[in-house]
Amino acid sequence: MLLRIDPGSTEPLFAQLAAQVRAAVLRGELRPGARLPTARDLAASLDVNLHTVLRAYGELRDEGLVELRRGRGAVVAAHAAGDLDPVHAAVAALVSAARARGLAPATTVGLLKDALSQQEDR
Question: Residues 30-43: pLDDT tens digits?
């Protein structure tokens, strides 16, 4: 798996890394039990601070997507992706409906974020 960062992005580097790993798990590219690069190796290969990678891994751990094990590094959790077929179908339907109405991707993402935050408030 190849991880990339965009230093010019407004999104923090740790968030970029976490999002890429999260997406790879959801797409099935990273299966449960798969080992992620060590934080030290990933930091060196991306030329970022070690703590940036550790923060990304910590965020993924807090979400339950990865397990951090001393001496073994970060491993994709056994229950990480689960059965996401219904979610993928719902997202595909959302994208189709948004495109049919001519909504910009940023608008669609904004609507989804609003809906998610409203669910958290309940």
Answer: 888 999 999 999 99
| 106 compared with 71, residue with greater pLDDT | 106
pTM of this prediction? 0.69
The 3-class SS string of the chain reads: CCCCCCCCCCCCHHHHHHHHHHHHHHHCCCCCCCECCCHHHHHHHHCCCHHHHHHHHHHHHHHCCEEEECCCEEEECCCCCCCCHHHHHHHHHHHHHHHHCCCCHHHHHHHHHHHHHHHHHC
Please say whether the beta carbons of 50 and 12 come within 8 A.
Answer: no
Given this structure, which CATH class describes domain 13-76? mainly alpha
